[in-house]
Design goal:
The protein has 210 residues and is of the alpha/beta class. The protein has one domain: Vaccinia Virus protein VP39 (Rossmann fold), CATH 3.40.50.150. It contains six helices and seven strands. It has a seven-stranded mixed sheet with strand order 3-2-1-4-5-7-6, sandwiched between helices. It is globular and about 40 Å long. Bound molecules: S-adenosylmethionine. S-adenosylmethionine (SAM) binds next to helix 2.
Length: 210
């Protein structure tokens, strides 16, 4: 995709990186985790899978990938230090410390080798990526052949969303059709769908690397 075609994804203002106060707000807001569990349930995790969560926030999906879905290794990439620190503590408390890692990084520059992940997830994270094209290319790079990507974002524009006034409503919506087109240009198979998890309307994108 051209830069122009994806300008709507480059939000051009700093709503993505979380300072300590905003990070703590999201820490408590996301403890319920319905979106995370729904996305993980679509990822078809098997015990030998290495799972990567982009924008892992307070660590919900990383910990659940191990504790609820049986992954041997799960890694969170998260730019906010306070959230990484909180995730390490939560993982230890949940007994997932040995199987989880939380590392500094962004979707646009994943600090991971090529073909290292069987499953990549991103929950309420895509709309924070400053350069979605680069993020998609990074997902394609780190996925192993046969690996899958599942993203889910709460749809705050949906009238059924219980928190229509959430701050996310002010942020640019992700254009999932363009995400699908971006993955297809990278040689992946991709599709979008809608779901509801615990009353939360979600936009979902699933992509598979051949
Ligand atoms: C709304 S929170 C979601 C956190 C978590 N995935 C969850 O559902 O609980 C968005 C997260 O994306 C992170 N983030 C911001 N910019 C990012 C980027 N460019 N790449 C990856 N993550 C980013 C934020 O620090 C924050 O933790």
């Amino acid at each position: 995709m051209s830069d122009t075609a994806h300008d709507h994804h480059r939000h051009g203002h700093d709503h993505g990186r979380f300072g300590p106060a905003k990070a703590l707000f999201y820490f408590f807001r996301h403890l319920r985790g319905a979106g995370n569990r729904h996305v993980l349930s679509l990822a078809e995790i098997t015990p030998t899978d290495t799972v990567l969560d982009i924008g892992s926030g307070p660590g919900m999906a990383v910990i659940d990938a191990v504790k609820r879905f049986g992954a041997e290794h799960a890694i969170g990439v998260e730019p906010a230090g306070v959230l990484r620190a909180a995730s390490v503590v939560r993982a230890a408390v949940r007994g997932a410390g040995a199987s989880t890692k939380f590392i500094d990084g962004t979707a646009e520059a994943l600090p991971m080798p090529d073909a290292c992940a069987d499953v990549v997830v991103a929950v309420n994270s895509l709309h924070h990526w400053e350069d979605v094209d680069r993020g998609l290319a990074e997902v394609a790079r780190v996925l192993r052949p046969g690996g899958r990507f599942v993203a889910g974002d709460e749809d705050f524009s949906n009238g059924d969303h219980p928190r229509g006034g959430d701050p996310h409503a002010d942020w640019p919506a992700v254009d999932y059709d363009r995400v699908v087109a971006g993955f297809e240009q990278l040689g992946l198979t991709a599709s979008t769908s809608r779901a509801t998890a615990d009353d939360l309307p979600l936009n979902i994108v699933v992509a598979t690397k051949p």
